[in-house]
Specification:
Strand content: 15-25%
Shape: rod-shaped
CATH architecture of the largest domain: 3-Layer(aba) Sandwich
Helix content: 40-55%
Bound molecules: adenosine-5'-diphosphate-glucose
CATH topology of the largest domain: Rossmann fold
Number of helices: 24
Number of strands: 25
Oligomer: single chain
Length: 810
């Protein structure tokens, strides 16, 4: 005979159980049911669970500590618990059903026996069986013709047999025993060939008289209840299998839907509408996923910052991996290469003195793409193609420079007027009153629209990455966003952002802030500038500011406002020998080899603290007369915005001051201040940096200041001291410089003296630390930080677009 069998054949190498299962024999139920339950329980406790403890199995422990069924194949995870529950239900139900049916059959047989007794009594009439034994015998034999009646007999009042049917099955039983069995509940007796129902009923109203004994065959009851059990068990098994199958299918499909949904969310694309679930079911994980993505990106950024030094190659590979080679468009006022026609009719290429160009140009070399800028050179029109484009850098073209042409009137209003007489002094606390003219603003707006249109026409895709540079284009982000809603617009504000009260004097403050909030990312140099901008938004607009995530949501669009400290490209290749540089510069100013020199390199701008610098030199010489004849400041100042009155006046004041100081402390063959108010090429500037004993950066207010970083990068000899204004953004990053307050002329003078007399060991220690910072935080890291954030934002926007598309689906 078969027995129920379910067991473990072996544990696989990975800990998964391999089962065998034998067909259950229902004929043995209910015994088989209990066997079945036992087998299943033992199977789980002794075989499957040990498999989970297999060295290579990875059982998952839920937070509350209970073991999970993760180590089982998915179908079994549903089937096994269900099987257990169903077997338990069968184990409890089948005996109850058995009892019930038995009780009903016993009751039926009791009634039947009583009917037969009544009929027998009536057939006997007034006589008792002992009086007419032959008649009684005939009647009894007729009764047992019924196949269910096994035997019938008459017991006398003395407890002896009077008459019995032929082949009475319980010949060995005496009347007293049968009477006892008949009183039992249920009244059953085990006979050699099966179970029998025993009934013993009086033939007359006289209870002490003869009694009819009837033995009914119970095997049919047993057969029927066996059939009932079989059907019940089949029903349970079928029901269980159907439930398990349906659950499994739904679980599989739901799981696949979730998986596809979550995977698509993580990829930010191809979000499949998960099977049978509305968006509400996905919503709880969306926030979690967003959080996870943020965390991942933060970790990634930490890795980006921690790992090695950023190089153009690394930036290129980041563009490929994170932005999938997306299109990059830069917009700035100043072009990186200016074609000028010389007096001899030749075309020469100039590199402008601009911190923006210094920083962004190496990034563009690495990224390729298009740079849109104002074509300001006299030969610019002669060098572009019909799309107004020219490939640059001239020596090794790697990106396109697209020029936008401006009329003199436009340039006067937009650039000199609103940008440089309005926004520049507004954003720098340099005590020069900003000038706001409505006509300048109109030009500013119109020129911004021209550049925004140039971006839109240059874009080959619907979602380019647009890098908008500086305060000349505050309105461009919004204007581009209107035409290219899916563009990723990174705006970088290269100058400081004033506090909200100062900014509020601008008549078009709201328009400017609104324009900037068209950006996807708005970058400043320092957290301080970010804070000022956020406060300005708070005062001016109804926007939702999320300090925790540094985001501002305005008009349904979110802008990330973050600080990205700008830097320079770390120089590659060998530099000219320091001795040669020192000699060259000293020969230029006509002094000896031991002469001490401080260098200053700036655009000729009133924010750079040039007056304060020269005044500090005078005070230093006054306080340390031994330095007279031994020390000079070499100030290289590139003329800038010379058409503006404020700049012309400043130039004159500076010239006058330099003359005064030189007159006061100068000697034959010695000038304490040398002012070279001309543009110098980058190679010459590097030689000057290497030749100097100190570098003076005395900005009254500055976004970052790249000159100090250039000086540090040029000093691979680990000599030279940097004096750095605390009002330059770089002061946060470079605490090993001598940090000064340029408004305190005396303190600056003392710091200059300290720099000139600093020991070589201290110079080396400070310079080593400064170099490591600038080498690490180079301009490629600056760009990488923004592009990683842009990639993350693009990813999030894709996810949100998919979710809202999903939400709109019926
Ligand atoms: P700038 O105000 O232009 O930049 P800065 O960062 O110091 O100031 O950069 C000046 C650049 O011009 C340097 O690369 C320097 O070498 C070059 N330069 C200066 N004088 C020169 C000369 N005579 N000849 C040739 N080149 C000369 C603005 C903000 C800064 C911010 C940068 C970058 O005002 O705070 O650091 O953008 O974001």
């Amino acid at each position: 005979m078969h027995t129920v069998g379910l067991g473990l054949r072996r544990c696989r190498d990975d800990g998964a159980p391999v089962f065998f299962m034998r067909k259950p024999d229902f004929s043995r139920a209910p015994a088989d049911i209990s066997i079945c339950v036992n087998v299943v329980l033992r199977f789980i406790l002794k075989t499957v669970l040990p498999c989970a403890r297999h060295p290579r199995a990875r059982p998952f422990h839920r937070p509350h500590g209970g073991p999970d069924l993760k180590f089982l194949p998915l179908p079994l995870r549903f089937f096994l618990p269900l099987l257990c529950v169903l077997l338990l239900a069968a184990y409890i139900t089948v005996p109850i059903v058995d009892q019930l049916t038995l009780r009903w059959f016993v009751k039926d047989l009791d009634t039947r026996a009583s009917l037969i007794t009544t009929t027998f009594s009536e057939s006997m009439g007034d006589t008792s069986p002992p009086q007419r034994p032959a008649h009684a015998q005939t009647l009894l034999d007729r009764i047992v013709r019924d196949e269910r009646v096994l035997g019938a007999g008459i017991c006398t009042s003395e407890g002896t047999w009077s008459v019995r049917s032929v082949g009475f099955p319980a010949a060995g039983f005496d009347c007293a025993t049968l009477a006892q069995l008949a009183r039992k509940r249920p009244p059953l007796a085990q006979l050699p060939y099966g179970l029998a129902h025993v009934a013993m009923l009086p033939l007359s109203a006289d209870q002490g008289g003869d009694q009819l004994v009837l033995l009914h065959d119970m095997s049919f009851v047993e057969r029927r209840s066996q059939i009932t059990r079989q059907y019940l068990i089949i029903l349970f098994v079928v029901l269980g299998s159907v439930i398990a199958l349906i659950t499994l299918i739904i679980a599989q499909l739901t799981w696949r839907g979730w998986l596809a949904g979550v995977q698509a969310l993580l990829r930010g694309e191809g979000l499949v509408r998960p099977f049978g679930m509305g968006n509400r079911e996905l919503m709880p994980v969306v926030e979690e996923l967003r959080g996870m993505l943020r965390e991942l990106e933060d970790q990634r950024r930490v890795l980006h910052r921690a790992n090695n030094i950023w190089t153009p190659e690394r930036l290129r590979s980041l563009l490929k991996s994170d932005l999938r080679g997306d299109e990059i468009i830069v917009v700035s006022n100043r072009e990186p290469y200016i074609h000028e026609r010389t007096a001899e009719g030749q075309i020469k290429i100039n590199r402008p003195a601009s911190g923006l160009v210094t920083a962004v140009e190496p990034v563009m070399r690495a990224c390729s793409g298009i740079w849109i800028a104002h074509g300001s050179g006299s030969a610019d029109r002669d060098t572009v193609d019909k799309l107004d484009q020219v490939a640059v850098p001239p020596e090794d073209p790697s990106y396109q420079l697209k020029r936008v042409w401006l009329s003199e009137e436009e340039e006067a209003g937009y650039y000199f007027g609103f940008a440089n007489e309005g926004l520049w002094p507004l954003c720098h606390i340099a005590h020069v009153r900003p000038v706001f003219r409505a006509s300048d603003w109109e030009h500013y707006r119109a020129v911004n629209q021209r550049f925004a249109d140039a971006v839109v026409s240059a874009a080959r895709t619907e979602d380019p990455v647009v890098l908008v540079q500086d305060y000349h284009f505050a309105l461009v982000p919004r204007m581009v966003r209107e035409k290219l809603p899916r563009a990723t617009i990174i705006t970088f504000w290269h100058i400081p952002w004033p506090n909200s009260e100062s900014f509020s004097i601008c008549p078009w403050r709201s328009e400017i802030v609104d324009g900037l909030l068209g950006s996807t990312i708005l970058g400043f140099h320092t957290p301080y500038h970010c804070k000022h901008f956020t406060e300005t938004v708070d005062h001016l607009l109804e926007a939702n500011i999320e300090q925790e995530h540094s985001t501002i949501t305005y008009g349904g669009h979110q802008t990330l406002v973050k600080n990205y400290p700008i830097s320079i490209a770390w120089p590659e290749g060998a530099m000219p020998p320091v001795e040669a540089c020192r000699q060259e510069l000293r020969e230029r100013i006509g002094v000896g080899a031991s002469h001490l020199i401080a260098i200053g390199v700036d655009r000729f701008d009133y924010t750079k603290g040039l007056i304060e610098r020269v005044s500090a030199v005078a005070v230093m010489l006054e306080r340390h007369p031994d330095m007279i004849g031994r020390f000079s400041l070499v100030q290289v100042a590139a003329p800038t915005r010379s058409s503006l009155e404020e700049y012309r006046t400043f130039h004159e004041r500076m010239d006058k001051l330099v003359q005064d100081v030189n007159a006061r402390f100068g000697q034959p063959g010695y000038q304490p201040v040398h002012l070279f108010a001309t543009h110098h090429d980058a190679v010459t500037l590097q030689r000057y940096y290497r030749a100097a004993d100190a570098c003076m950066v005395t900005s009254l207010h500055d976004g970052m200041n790249l000159v100090c970083k250039e000086f540090i990068a040029a000093r691979d000899d680990e000599r030279g001291v940097l004096l750095l204004s605390r009002f330059a953004g770089a002061a946060d990053e470079l605490p090993d410089a001598l940090i000064i307050n340029p408004y305190s002329i005396e303190d600056t003078a003392d710091a200059l003296h300290e720099a000139l007399t600093m020991s070589e060991a201290e110079q080396r220690d400070r310079m080593r630390s400064l170099r490591s910072t600038v080498q690490h935080n180079n301009v490629y890291l600056w760009a990488a930080d923004m592009l990683v954030d842009a990639a993350r934002t693009r990813l999030r926007e894709r996810i949100e677009a998919r979710i809202s598309a999903n939400r709109k689906e019926p």
